[in-house]
Amino acid sequence: MKTQIILLAALASLPLFANDNAMVNSPDGKLEVSLGIRHGRPYYSVTYDGLKAINNSLLGLTTNEQDLTRDLSIKTTETTNIDERYTLDRSKTSEVHYVANRLLATLATPQGQELQVEFRVSNNDVAFRYLLPKQGETGSVRVTSEATSFSFPDGTTTFLTSQSDPMIGWKRTKPSYEELYCWDAPMSQGSQYGHGYTFPCLFHERGVFDNKADELWVMISETGLDSRYCATHISDAHANPLNGGGIFQSSYLNTYTIAYPMPEENNGIGTTDAAIALPGSTPWRTITVGRTMKPIVETTVPWDNVKPVFKTNRQYKMGRGTWSWILWQDESINYDDLCKYVDLAKAMGYEYALVDNWWDTNLGKECDGTAKDPNKSIEKLIEYAHSKGVDVFLWYSSSGYWNDIEQGPINRMANSVIRKREMKWLESVGVKGIKVDFFGGDKQETIRLYEEILSDADDHGLMVIFHGCTLPRGWERMYPNYVGSEAVLASENIVFDQAQCDLEAKYATLHPVLRNAVGCMEFGGSFQNKYMNRDNKPRENRHVNTRPCTSTFSLATAILYQNPIQNFALAPNNLEDAPEVSMQFMRDVPTTWDEVRYIDGYPGRYLIMARRHGDTWYVAAINAEPQKLVISLDLSVLNATSFTLYSGGDTPTAKPMKLKAGKTLLNLAPNDGIVIVAK
Ligand code: CA
Predict the structure, then answer these.
(1) How many CB atoms lie within 10 A of CB 82?
(2) If you measure from the C-alpha of residue 201 to the centroid of ligand 1, how many angstroms do you get, rounded to a whole number?
(3) Ligand 1 mean position, distance from CA 499 (Å)
(4) How confident is the model at residue 12 (pLDDT cuts 50, 70, 90)?
(5) How far is the centre of ligand 1, averaged over its atoms, from the C-alpha of 368 (Å)?
(6) What integer pLDDT is reported at residue 9 of this predicted model?
(7) What is the 222 CA–ligand 1 centroid distance (Å)?
(8) 484 CA distance to ligand 1 centroid (A)?
(9) 3-class SS string, 495-554
(10) Best exposed site among 89, 148, 201, 671 by fewest CB in 10 Å?
């Protein structure tokens, strides 16, 4: 009798019903997601290699019709296996084999209202989303908030970038994912603006497990976003109501909750809610976990669970471009200077020249509306480019009524009637793509505009680059004419600001393992100018922003940064003043890749990665530390027979290397890099 009572007491601390728990493992068994219910509240946790990467964290969402965060129990669970192969033609990997285990749990309230949560678990990635079935007569709901959270072991440090205040910055264009990062910061450090952080988010769990030597890297992000939802971000850290494994509230700031857009975004127009038709689903939230950053750099989770939104019968050609605006700025948007950049593209063998803002005024009409010299019009420039075998991208503002941008063309992408007319003209003059800048934020209203621009552009054979924009979320696979997004504090800041020149190497050790790990990144880098001005020369008695990074460093970033069309920050003067070794490298460098390999690194300190194009491997390494770095590489793993080493800082050489048995040791000076091309 006594024994039975003890047994009952032990049972009372366990879930009341066996079906209040469910679990799903990765195919290799290392990554495990547990789903549970406590006091009617659904939660999950993630374990990797026996280490709790994500502690018990709440699930659930609230709509205008239902509170689906509490009073829930698990009604049914279903597990299936996924084994799928697909190709990507503009990302880090070309052939993907996605193998995962799937858990679909149907949760229900006592009144019978249902919420489904679906987990897909591959060896290093968890993707999960909610599905809302149709219930009764209700055919649509507004999702107003989520309980979805991510709770980390106390002591975890963070690499996060803050969500900006809305309607601030240049012409009131923020937020646009162009903020600084914190480096290895404690979770208790608040975000810069108090609105939390934008995806992707990187967490370092070191010294937080029983065995202090254990460490995990965890990245969380979002994917599969189209016009049917808003983009989300995460809150500042708060206490976890589930306190890891216990039931008492924790006072530690260790938990981040999914946050919806801010009301003031997009000039206050559009809801912060997501409106979905039923049955409907949220985008996928993703968690990538590894003992090093390797699974994060190499992850394909942004694309594994998304499908093309539309198909195309167009052929889109990726490649390289020149971009006059980055160094020569607004003053370069005139016929003669733009011809120089077309000539540069030809000299480099590049496919494209990007014409930035004000072309409509400066190459079309005078400010008073009278026509410019027809021999210096944008059509003439496009003809000139075609005569040199170069195709053209044209810039547009997305606005609209959501910022104060006056850089033209404005008001042509925001309205479907004008947009379609404009795109018809673009196609008729042989333009191959557009760069659309200055979007209004993360509301569903704005995500719909992204999709409409992509869809209309495809009708006219136009590729699309976004700037001043949100993070792409699976778009490389979802939209056949999508090329890339800025959504990063990009190369323009190196031109604008000495502090950013000084931080170029530091950020170059982070972006490839974080921002660029989840999507194409239109950074516009690989400067060969030392001085951020038109003649690439210092001035007496006046400061000119000056890059401490070397010529060879810039070659390394051409490999580290991935965008299928890279608009490199080269200038016509570089044909004369940059090392010929560097310029030849920049002529030959590919921008589409078959494979990526993370080798070693630490954000803010150094990075070594390799990318493969066809049968050629490019190993790139950079050093952001103030002292010399010695790196050790095992080149035999590349299975190559010929190796060329690009090194030497600002006076680079390309020298054949002999493959030695064991490790190859190489020195990197501060702000310097190397590239090894192996065939
Ligand atoms: Ca920008």
Answers:
(1) 15
(2) 20
(3) 17
(4) very low
(5) 29
(6) 36
(7) 21
(8) 13
(9) HHCHHHHHCHHHHHCCHHHCHHHCCCECCCCCCCCCECCCCCCCECCECCCECCCCHHHH
(10) 89
Task: Report CA(542)–ligand 1 centroid distance (Å).
Answer: 26
- Is the alpha carbon torsion for 187, 193, 196, 200 positive or negative? negative
In three state form, how does the secondary structure of 115-142 look?
EEEEEEECCCEEEEEEEECCECCECEEE
Q: What average pLDDT does this structure show over 646-659?
A: 96
Residue 636 alpha carbon to ligand 1 centre in Å = 41
pLDDT (average), residues 193-221: 98
Quote the pLDDT of residue 374. Answer: 83
For the stretch 78-122, pLDDT in tens is 999 999 999 999 999 999 999 999 999 999 999 999 999 999 999
Residue 156 in this model has a pLDDT that exceeds 70: yes
175 Cα–ligand 1 center, Å? 11
Sign of the C-alpha dihedral computed for residues 446, 437, 379 and 459 taken in this order: negative
| Residue 110 per-residue DSSP state | T
User: In angstroms, what is the span from residue 490 Cα to ligand 1's centroid?
Assistant: 7
Average of per-residue pLDDT values in the chain: 94
415, 453 contact by CB (below 8 A): no
Residues with Cβ within 5 Å of ion ligand 1? 468
Tell me the residue length of the chain. 679
Q: What is the pLDDT of residues 433-460, one digit of tens each?
A: 999 999 999 999 999 999 999 999 999 9
Q: How far is the CA of 171 from the centre of ligand 1 (A)?
A: 12
| Confidence at residue 17, expressed as pLDDT on a 0 to 100 scale | 44
